[in-house]
Amino acid sequence: DAVSLGTARRSALMDQPSCRYLDAGDNGTSARSAPAIALSRPRWARRADTWLVMGDWITDPDIVAVEYSSEKSYRERWLAYRELLDGPDDGDIVRQRIVEAQPARLLDVGSGLGDLCVWARDEIDTEVFAIDASPRMASLCGQAGAYAAQADIRCLPFTDASFDCVTACSVLYHVSDPERAIAEAARVLKPDGLFIATTGSDDEHERLHAWESLFGERIPDYPPQSFSRENGHDVLLRSFAHVDRVDCDAALVFRSREQLVLYMKALVQGADAADQVPELSEPFRLPFTASVF
Questions:
Q1: Do the bridges between strand 240-242 and strand 85-86 make them parallel or antiparallel, or are there none, so unpaired?
Q2: Which of 152, 257, 265, 289 has the fewest CB within 10 Å, making it most exposed?
Q3: What is the dihedral of CA 291, 228, 107, 88, to 10 degrees?
Q4: Mean pLDDT, the chain, whole residue set
Q5: What is the C-alpha to C-alpha distance for residues 293 and 103, in angstroms, rounded to an integer?
Q6: pLDDT digits (tens, 9 = 90+) for 194-218
Q7: Residues with Cβ within 8 Å of residue 2, at least 6 apart in sequence
Q8: Residue from 193, 117, 189, 108 nearest 151 by CA
Q9: How many CB atoms lie within 10 A of CB 91?
Q10: Is the pLDDT of residue 23 over 50?
Q11: Which residues are bridge partners to 251 per DSSP?
């Protein structure tokens, strides 16, 4: 089906407090080397009635910092979405919007492994900048060829109106006050700039039902996310004059127990249940919801 590609455009009514700014024209924002982090990835999750609820960790800065101090688990989840997804891919929508916008300067906040940075560098004629709270992720993006720095997405180290496009893919729900991060994105955007954000849905009943059917036990409901399909429109309207949404509902299809075990070991909230995955008599479909604003 044809997809209606709208945009989130910067509102003319912006009054943001100053932070610590760097001019995006100064390519001295190179990646900082990642410091040694004396933390191992704990197994917070437990089976049955002690499964870690997503809301217990997703906005907890300490747990998030440990989770993303290494790319190992994140890369495993990323590979699953790239290789096992059955249905529309929100990443395709993001890339299509960027291609249509043809930005001269692009900022990716919460840049993670740097896959979007690599794609933008190779596919369009643009300067690519990356920000991530994780020193390791910022380092990876620098290695990928972006001008990368470790920073809080709620206080971007750039001057006003520095970028033609800002992307925030699967990151805004990691802060309890996403409106601050969105306001910062609007501040560093040019007046006709494009903001793109992705997130999931608070309605995870089908996903929870799939887990419960697999393990034969009840899994706790997920609490509402700070930035989701359901509230994203209203949150974005505080900083942007126009907002639209494209939903991408799909599923990860695991055709072997081994695939599913690898994926579960990479999850924060279900890692300890990985060894209890039963043999699969048929492919296991795990619903996945995503929206692009």
A1: unpaired
A2: 257
A3: -20
A4: 83
A5: 17
A6: 999 999 999 999 999 999 999 998 8
A7: none
A8: 108
A9: 20
A10: no
A11: 86, 287
DSSP labels, 163-176: EEEEEEES-GGGSS
Which amino acid makes up residue 190? K
Q: Could you tell me how many residues make up the chain?
A: 293
Residue recorded with tokens 């919007």: 97
Which tokens go with 67?
Answer: 């989770």
Indicate the range of 53-57, 194-198, 261-265, 289-293 predicted with least confidence.
53-57
Number of Cα atoms under 13 Å in the Cβ half of residue 106: 28
Give pLDDT tens digits for 101-154: 999 999 999 999 999 999 999 999 899 999 999 999 999 999 988 999 999 999
Spell out the residues 6+ positions from residue 143 whose beta carbon is closer than 8 angstroms to its own: 31, 114
**How many CA atoms within 13 Å lie on the side-chain side of 268?**
18
In the chain, alpha helices (H): 61-67, 72-84, 90-101, 115-123, 135-143, 178-188, 205-215, 232-236, 257-265
Question: What angle, rounded to 10 degrees, do the helices at 90-101 and 115-123 form?
Answer: 40
C-alpha span between 186 and 293 (Å, rounded): 14
Q: Determine the Cα–Cα distance for residues 145 and 167; give it in Å rounded to an integer.
A: 17
